[in-house]
C-alpha cells in the first residue's frame, strides 16, 4: 500500500488496507483568504462531457500531441480566459458516467465497481453519507442543487434531497421558472426554437436561472448583515447538460449564430460528423459558462463566491465504442476561482495528480471545518 510521505494518517489495523487521513504536512500549493466572519458562497459546477484536451490553456501553447492540428484553436475560449484568473488543475481524473462523478465530488467516494449500477442507484435513502452538503450545512450554509437536466436516471431525484440538499431544482423546475420569468412558452422546449431537448432545458436557460439565484441570495445576505443578522451563506452544486451525447441538440438561435471553423479538427476522420457535433455542443456550453461568469463578475457576486469548475467526465466522439479507460474519457480540466483571494497564486497551474474525490478535502481546507 502506497502512502505519500506528506500524508498524516491512522491505520485501522496492522493487517488492514484501510486508513484514516488526518491531515497533510509540507508547504501548501496555494492559499485562499477566507474570513469566518464573512464566509463566502461556494459554487461547484460540473460540466457535461468536458475533456482536458478541449482546453488550449490546459494543453498548453506548444500542444505536444498536436491535438489542435497545427492551429491556434481552442474549443473553450471562455473557460481558458477565466482559468488564467484562478488555479487550474491540469492532472485531474474522473470516472464515467456522471453518477460516479457525483458520488466522488460530493462525498469523496471511490466509484462503485459495477457495470450497470453506481453508488447512488436507487437513491440510497437508508445509506448515511457525510460529504460537501453535510459539511456546509454544519457550517450554517443553505444547500442547493440545480441543473437543467432530468434527474430521474439513477434516482438522483431521491438521492439528492435525502443526502443533504435543502433545495433541488431539476429540469421541470427550471422550465417552470423560465416560463414564468423569461417569456419562454411551453411549446418552445420541443418546438422549432429548441429551448430544450430530451434531457431537459439547455444550458443558456439553466445558467440564467443559476445567476438569478445567486444574485437574489447575495442581495438577501447583504440585507441580513445590514440588519445586524448573521449571514446565511450558500452552497450550490450545478450540473450542465447540453453537451451530452449524441450531441445533436442546441437552441435555434445558437444554430443560426456565427461559430468558429473547427473543420481542421475533424476533416478526414471517419467519424467527422460526430466530432463536429461534439465541438459545437462543447463550444455552446463554454459560451454560456463565460456569459454566466462575466455576469457574476459584473454583479459583484464573484467577490463573495468561491467557484470550482470541472468536467464531470470526458468523451470520445472519435471512437465508435468508448472505452472507459481512455484518456479523453477520464482526464478532465479543473479550475478554482476565488476573485481577490488568491494573491500571487492567480494563474497557477497545478500538475499534481488529483481525482474528483479530492475536491471535498480541498474545499474543507479552504473554507474550514465546522466547530465540533
From TrEMBL:
Residues 40-368 form the Sulfatase N-terminal domain. Gene3D superfamilies: Alkaline Phosphatase, subunit A (3.40.720.10). InterPro entries: Alkaline_phosphatase_core_sf, GAG_Ulvan_Degrading_Sulfatases, Sulfatase_N. CDD domains: LTA_synthase. Pfam families: Sulfatase. This is Sulfatase-like protein.
Amino acid at each position: 500500500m502506497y502512502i505519500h510521505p506528506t500524508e498524516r494518517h491512522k491505520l485501522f489495523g496492522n493487517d488492514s488496507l484501510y486508513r484514516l487521513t488526518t491531515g497533510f504536512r509540507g508547504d501548501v500549493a496555494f492559499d485562499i483568504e477566507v474570513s469566518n466572519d464573512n464566509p463566502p458562497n461556494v459554487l461547484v459546477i460540473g460540466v457535461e462531457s468536458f475533456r482536458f484536451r478541449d482546453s488550449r490553456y490546459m494543453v498548453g501553447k506548444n500542444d505536444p500531441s498536436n491535438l489542435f492540428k497545427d492551429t491556434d484553436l481552442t474549443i473553450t475560449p471562455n473557460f481558458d480566459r477565466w482559468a488564467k484568473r484562478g488555479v487550474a488543475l491540469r492532472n485531474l481524473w474522473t470516472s464515467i458516467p456522471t453518477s460516479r462523478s457525483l458520488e466522488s465530488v460530493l462525498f469523496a467516494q471511490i466509484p462503485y465497481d459495477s457495470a450497470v449500477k453506481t453508488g447512488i442507484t436507487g437513491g440510497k435513502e437508508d445509506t448515511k453519507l457525510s460529504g460537501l452538503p453535510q459539511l456546509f450545512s454544519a457550517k450554517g450554509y443553505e444547500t442547493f442543487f440545480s441543473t437543467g437536466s432530468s434527474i430521474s436516471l439513477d434516482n438522483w431525484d431521491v438521492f439528492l434531497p435525502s443526502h443533504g440538499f435543502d433545495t433541488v431544482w431539476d429540469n421541470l423546475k427550471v422550465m417552470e421558472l423560465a416560463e414564468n420569468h423569461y417569456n419562454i412558452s411551453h411549446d418552445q422546449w420541443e418546438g422549432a426554437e429548441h429551448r430544450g431537448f430530451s434531457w431537459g432545458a439547455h444550458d443558456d436557460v439553466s445558467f440564467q436561472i443559476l445567476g438569478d439565484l445567486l444574485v437574489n441570495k447575495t442581495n438577501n445576505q447583504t440585507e441580513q448583515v445590514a440588519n445586524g443578522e448573521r449571514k446565511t451563506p450558500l452552497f450550490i452544486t450545478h450540473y450542465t447538460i447540453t453537451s451530452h451525447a449524441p450531441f445533436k441538440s442546441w437552441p435555434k438561435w445558437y444554430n443560426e449564430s456565427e461559430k468558429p471553423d473547427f473543420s481542421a479538427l475533424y476533416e478526414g476522420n471517419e467519424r467527422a460528423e460526430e466530432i463536429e457535433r461534439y465541438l459545437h455542443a462543447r463550444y455552446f456550453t463554454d459560451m454560456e459558462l463565460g456569459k454566466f461568469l462575466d455576469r457574476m463578475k459584473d454583479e459583484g457576486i464573484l467577490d463573495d463566491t468561491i467557484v470550482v469548475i470541472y468536467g464531470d467526465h470526458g468523451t470520445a466522439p472519435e471512437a465508435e465504442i468508448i472505452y472507459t479507460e481512455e484518456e479523453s474519457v477520464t482526464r478532465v480540466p479543473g479550475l478554482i476561482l476565488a476573485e481577490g483571494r488568491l494573491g500571487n497564486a492567480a494563474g497557477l497551474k497545478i500538475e499534481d495528480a488529483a481525482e474528483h474525490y479530492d475536491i471535498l478535502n480541498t474545499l474543507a481546507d479552504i473554507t474550514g471545518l465546522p466547530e465540533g
